[in-house]
Amino acid sequence: MDDIIIKEVRNVDCDLVEKIVELEKRNLGEDASVNEWVIPVIIRYGKLIVAKRYRELTRSDNGINKSAITENDMEESIVNNSDDTEIIGVCEIIKSLREENTAFIHSFYIEKKYRNKGIGKKLMQNAINTLKDDNIKIIELTVDPANKTAINLYSKCGFERTGLRKNEYGRGVDRDLMILKL
Q1: Contact at 8 Å (CB) between 152 and 120?
Q2: Average pLDDT by consecutive 10-residue portion of the chain (182 residues)?
Q3: Geometric angle at alpha carbon 173, from 172 and 179, rounded to 5°
């Protein structure tokens, strides 16, 4: 899918925040999603990396031919939150204040209809490389032990299961802890 671009969001935009909140609810459920108060904090003090798909454009779309669209056009549409793109994946990262050079992937998902197409791996690799550039040495994340697809992706990206966190997100909501040492 060469119409996918991965980019860090650096500016808070109300429309973008609303889209992310909607995606969170749709992909993670009401209980696991963050709200309009948290996304701006992640953008300003952590990292929000998105996978965006450039919408198919045809001659009927103002005479624009998709083959004439450059990567620069796609990047500009992300920066400007253009309607020519749709967010199909999200990675939210926070840095640990307790452990030096450690980051935590708070949320990671790909829209259901785009899963199993290599987009999750592309998004995760981008996040890993971004954190390497920031001198992060350890990346942690938690995952539902029953989510074998996600565990498989994280393992392919080098994460190793290091333990089980009992009641991590409430009574009976356990999570595997996975760590990647860079």
Answers
A1: no
A2: 87 92 87 83 95 66 48 48 79 95 96 94 97 97 96 98 93 95 97
A3: 135
Count of C-beta atoms within a 10 Å radius of residue 138: 16
Q: What's the predicted TM-score (pTM) here?
A: 0.83
**Nearest-angstrom CA–CA distance, 110 and 13:** 21
At a CB cut-off of 8 Å and minimum separation 6, what does 43 contact? 9, 10, 11, 12
If we measure between CA atoms, which residue out of 32, 16, 13 comes closest to residue 24? Answer: 32
Tokens read off for 103: 């980051």
- Bridge partners (DSSP) of residue 163 are 177
The rounded distance, in Å, linking the Cα atoms of 153 and 159 is 9
Q: For domain 4-181, say whether CATH 3.40.50.150 is its number.
A: no
Distance CA 175, CA 53 (A): 30
Type of residue at 18: E
